[in-house]
Specification:
Blueprint lengths: L1 E7 L3 E8 L2 E9 L9 E10 L4 E5 L6 E4 H4 L12 H4 L5 E8 L8 E3 L4 E2 L3 E4 L5 E3 L6 H14 L5 E4 L8 H22 L6 E4 L4 H8 L7 E4 L2 H14 L7 E3 L6 H4 L2 H8 L3 E3 L5 E6 L3 E7 L9 H23 L3 E6 L6 H15 L6 E6 L5 E5 L6 H5 L15 H17 L5 E6 L1 H22 L2 E6 L8 E7 L1 H4 L8
Parallel strand pairs: 1-14, 11-12, 14-15, 18-19, 22-23
Antiparallel strand pairs: 1-2, 2-3, 4-5, 4-7, 4-13, 5-6, 7-8, 9-10, 10-12, 16-17, 17-18, 19-21, 20-21, 22-24
Helix pairs in contact: 3-4, 5-6, 9-10, 12-13
Length: about 500
């Protein structure tokens, strides 16, 4: 049973895909931060980098976009593989580009001059003469039937790829989709000639409409949304693109949060957690850096019932299925390293690989399993298109700056000592107030406040300590307070 659940609120839209009540995909789009992948811009070459065989393109976004030479070469020049980026583009040149990868972290978006326009069943490629069929359509007879339809309707010097949703569609439906894309392309062609760079020429659909176009197929049993107006607009769109699915669209009218009703909120919390428990009692630890993701598989509470090899194999197979699910759910891209529990038998390793590859077949994003290295680590890659769900829902901790660790109480006390001694050299006050987290106060009070007394003696200042709940454990405040006789009553009880 597959469902799409849509939570529409004032500032964002969230789309959850459930398979047998389990969250497998999550998409979030905010009004202030709409996705840019698929957008087409008239840009200007800002800088050419021969050493990197690339160029920066100003498309009007916060950061310049990045254009690799292979994405800049026109179709008629593709045969010449020895081309330098300087042979293809020049600084200041206007250029039409499409975003193929979101800006992530400090990196700008990646763009290409090889434009593609996705429809419901087809993808139109205006600049290449090509016919392709989705690799997920495996039946050879169906592939050939679709190829014949496309060859008959395809405009000359244009390319068409049949999407997975095109499987089983008749020529009439395919033609309608193609006509829509051709009209869209004509509109883009006109926009290209108007205005100056940088300029947005075409903006891809918002999350809600992309969901209908790309995900709402016959494999989805139900689509539910909590917004009455958007429910009506979905019905209108489904009526146009897939009228046979109209009965599967429902307006959620229960008086509670739609994600809480389907237990999605708690599953989202698990989706951003570092540790993921397996049903057997084993668990995964997922650590992500900018360059790669590492997944560590652990036995946890599971001890097995036959022998060690059987226990390890069972946990690794369960972990393989969960890893495939977590990659989709968290939208993890780039290089992925998996440290499965060591297996002695080669057959066991092959079994685990097979489980992983089969589980990855459900993933609409391209993945490539490279195999197990001599160190026993599995290497794989997954196409990176947008930031991970964690990067959308969370921000880097201002205290630990992403390390996952904070200063110990003793390090904080050492820093307090340095600050007190610094203030002592530059103040005429006789007393200071130190505000710290309660856990630091506990350490300061050990050994009968001997540390505070020694510091008072060294700095020649009266010190008052105050524990403040809202202060982070790594933070503290040291304030000069004036003459002791004037403030001692006010600060009575602090130390």
């Amino acid at each position: 049973m597959k469902k799409i659940i849509v939570d529409s609120s004032l500032n964002q839209t969230r789309v959850a895909v459930l398979e047998d009540k389990e969250l497998v995909e999550l998409y979030i789009e905010r009004e202030t931060n709409r996705r840019t992948v698929g957008n087409i811009y008239k840009g200007r070459i800002a800088n050419v980098l021969p050493g990197m065989q690339a160029a920066f393109v100003d498309v009007g976004l916060d950061k310049n976009a990045f254009l690799f030479v292979k994405d800049a070469i026109p179709p008629e020049m593709e045969a010449d593989r020895g081309l330098s980026i300087r042979d293809v583009v020049k600084s200041g040149q206007e250029i039409i580009v499409q975003i193929i990868k979101e800006a992530i972290g400090s990196k700008g978006a990646r763009v290409t001059t090889h434009l593609t326009l996705p429809g419901r069943y087809l993808v139109l490629m205006p600049y290449v003469d090509y016919v392709g069929i989705s690799r997920r359509i495996s039946n050879e007879h169906e592939r050939e039937r679709l190829r014949e339809i496309i060859e008959a309707v395809k405009p000359s010097n244009m390319g068409i790829i049949v999407r997975t949703a095109g499987e089983g569609k008749e020529e009439k439906e395919v033609k309608e989709d193609l006509n829509f894309l051709l009209k869209l392309w004509q509109k883009i062609e006109k926009e290209k000639k108007l205005g100056f760079a940088p300029k947005l020429i075409y903006q891809d659909l918002d999350l809600l409409h992309r969901t209908i176009r790309d995900m709402f197929t016959s494999s989805i049993d139900k689509l539910m949304i909590n917004d009455k107006e958007k429910y009506k607009s979905i019905l209108d769109l489904v009526e146009l693109v897939a009228p046979h699915l109209k009965k599967r669209v429902e307006h959620f009218e229960v008086d509670m949060n739609i994600f809480e009703y389907f237990n999605i909120e708690s599953m989202i919390n698990h989706a951003i957690a570092r540790k993921v428990w397996l049903k057997s009692g084993g668990y995964l630890v997922i650590d992500q850096t900018e360059a790669l993701t590492v997944v560590d598989v652990n036995t946890g509470k599971y001890v097995g019932s036959i022998d060690l090899e059987d226990t390890v194999l069972r946990i690794n197979k369960e972990a393989a299925e969960e890893i495939a699910k977590q990659l989709r759910l968290r939208d993890i891209g780039g290089i992925i390293i998996v440290d499965f529990i060591d297996m002695n038998k080669q057959g066991g390793k092959k079994e685990v690989l097979n489980v992983l590859e089969k589980a990855l077949e459900k993933d609409r994003t391209k993945t490539n399993v490279l195999g197990i290295t001599q160190l026993g680590l599995l290497e794989m890659t997954r196409k990176k298109i947008r930031g991970r769900i964690g990067s959308i829902m969370q921000k880097k901790c201002p205290y630990c700056e992403g390390t996952g660790s904070v200063l110990s109480e003793y390090t904080v006390i050492q820093n307090i000592e340095k600050e007190v001694k610094r203030i002592a050299l530059h103040t005429t006050s006789e007393a200071i107030l130190i505000e710290v987290a309660p856990c630091v106060v506990e350490i300061l009070k050990t050994d009968g406040n001997r540390f505070v007394e020694k510091l008072e003696e060294s700095a020649e200042l009266k010190i008052f300590i105050k524990g403040v709940e809202k202060i982070h454990t790594s933070a503290f405040s040291v304030k000069a307070m004036g003459k002791v006789d004037k403030i001692s009553e006010m600060l009575k009880g602090y130390k």
